[in-house]
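User: Fold this one for me? It's MFS family permease.
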Amino acid sequence: MTEVTSGTDRETVWRKVALRTFPLLGAAYVLGYIDRVNIGFVAAPLSRDLGMTNVEIGLTSTLFFIGYILATVPSNLLLRRFGAPRWIGFTLLAWGTITAVTAFADSAQTLYVLRVLLGFAEAGLAPGVLLYITYWFPARQRAWAYPVFISVIAVSGIIGAPLTAGLLEWGRHLTGLTGWRSVFLIEGLLTILVGVLVMTRLAKGPETAKWLSVPERERIQRRLDAETALKHENAVPAGIMDAFRSGRVWAFAFAFFALTFGIYSFSYFLPQMLQLLADEGGTSPTDATSVLLTAIPSTVALVVMLVWPRIFAKRSAVFSTVVPLTAGTAGVVLAALTDNGVAFIAGTCLAFSGIYTALSQFWRIPVLGLTGAAAAAGIAVINSAGNLTGMVSPLLTGAIQEATGGFRHALLLIAFVMSLGVLTMLIVGPRVERTGAGSPPASQRPQRVTAGRDDSPRKETS
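Assistant: Here's what I get for MFS family permease.
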């Protein structure tokens, strides 16, 4: 079969895929992130009700990631076996139920158990979505697909902060429960609803997408098959054990650990950091006001994250990851060294923008060096090992704050760890890019009808 397609037609296909898959997955990701970090949003009233210290609040994050890390790899392999709609939908139903039950926790010990269970339930979402994107988008399209999708993390902060603030203030009128309990109950029920929609509306892959025409399905599959063929030519790891034996996978796991080291500390303690600065300045904001202020860095980060790939579209993935991560590190240092509230917000805006932009570009690199079962296992290893930061960072931050009475030393530690991530990316990243699937093998490259840029009309033969 012979068909002539234009660059506009091809881009329309990718936009159609994104519009059909990203809203549901984005809603799941937003709820997953909010469910994960809402302990930080409600830390002040929750700790008062249950008599918990900052160290104990940090421990809830550590316990969450025990279950999360243990379940990530098997969960991603199960997704590959059963398909994204069933598996991701199941995880949403499970963690939505656990989050709703958390509303009725009556002690720190009950909360600890529920957070471990939540970690097991939520483990399949983030790595599963990252893997699922590779089922639809080849390398070139992933350059914008990952940033667009991961931008929902910033959206989580924008949506989650006012949602949580509103429920803290008025949730008792909706549920009859105190504010922080209403947060868990309502967000849990919303998660269950999205889980049902994912199970019934999400397509397993191009081959089952009824909303694509036959030529569109064939075009997508042809591009994905060509990329897989190139990876095989370059002897890219393809088996499960290959991923565990790959030094690059573990290097990327550490880089991801360093990249995300600041995310969880800020997510759990930013409202308290702002309250501490305000108290030192002689003001006393409410719990809801402190939560609302946390939306400012997330809003700025969302804009930067979406603009960055447009400006530097032709730069390498390593450049697009390392530069914002370096800027984010500088933002953390600024936040650590200032006692001025405005300067602190500016530092956190720079930190959030750098971290989230680097995160959106980071995942372009590891998937270039993995395929098949190794991709499922490798993404899960990187995600789970990197998410050790979710265990370590909040616990250290809480302990350092308890010992010193402030967050300065904790923020400086975060900046140091992030700088190690920059160094690791500079060492490992370029090597993977050189062997990655930048273009299909010569035998499978489509013949262009006209010369010029890649988005010019071309003729494809299948």
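One thing worth pointing out: The chain has one domain: 19-204+235-435.
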